[in-house]
Amino acid sequence: MKNQIRKTKEPKGITLIALVITILVLIILAGVTLNVLTGENGIITKAVKAKEDTETKSAEEQ
After folding, report:
1. Is 41 a domain residue?
2. pTM (predicted TM-score)
């Protein structure tokens, strides 16, 4: 009777490997995001340049 009733082990959460892979992916995404924001051709650099251009053009009009 005991041989007939077998319980299979079901996973009880995430494994350490899955956790490490998830953390690595998040670190890579964070690095790419920082590069896009603050890089030489990044969003913040473009915004500062656009602000300077706008102020220059505004001063020329007055």
Report:
1. yes
2. 0.60
